[in-house]
Specification:
145 residues, 8-stranded antiparallel sheet, 0% helix, 54% strand, FA58C, IFT25
């Protein structure tokens, strides 16, 4: 299945509540585990991913450090004027090991908003987000996460 969040597949970060030029939000979509976006030390922090098309999403995966609670919301609209909650979950502290969260879902979305509600420490990072599914029109996808 294709990862529609990847920049090379049309995914874009269209909003981030904070930024540091050393750790820009676009790092979330570059497909690398060793680059990341870092929060500024206050919570909540948000970012929104715009998908190139309306996608039937089957799996959302996040790779991160030090996130305690995260909420993911979706919008099917062209302009992302309103969002609906997909899931909210607590993540276990893993020390110096990356947090990998995989959520099986059955949704349609053009936009996904990720809200980091709290952290295990002062700062948290999002290293990668993967959004796997197929185009709403049924076009098959062949690329893997």
């Amino acid at each position: 299945m294709k990862d529609y969040a990847r920049a090379e597949n049309g995914g874009q970060i269209v909003m981030a509540s904070c930024g540091d030029e050393r750790f820009p939000p676009d790092n979330i979509l570059d497909g690398k585990d060793d680059t990341f976006w870092m929060t500024t030390g206050m919570f909540p922090q948000d970012f929104i991913i715009k998908l190139e098309n309306l996608v039937k999403i089957s799996k959302i995966t996040t790779l991160s450090f030090s996130i305690k609670r995260i909420c993911v919301e979706k919008s099917e609209q062209e302009n992302a004027a309103s969002f609906e909650k997909v899931f909210e979950t607590d993540l276990t502290a893993r020390g110096d090991r990356m947090q990998t969260e995989v959520h099986q879902v059955n949704i349609k979305a053009r936009f996904l908003r990720f809200s980091i509600l709290s952290g295990h420490g002062e700062f948290a990072t999002v290293n990668r987000v993967s959004v796997v599914g197929e185009l709403e029109d049924g076009t098959p996808a062949t690329e893997e996460f």
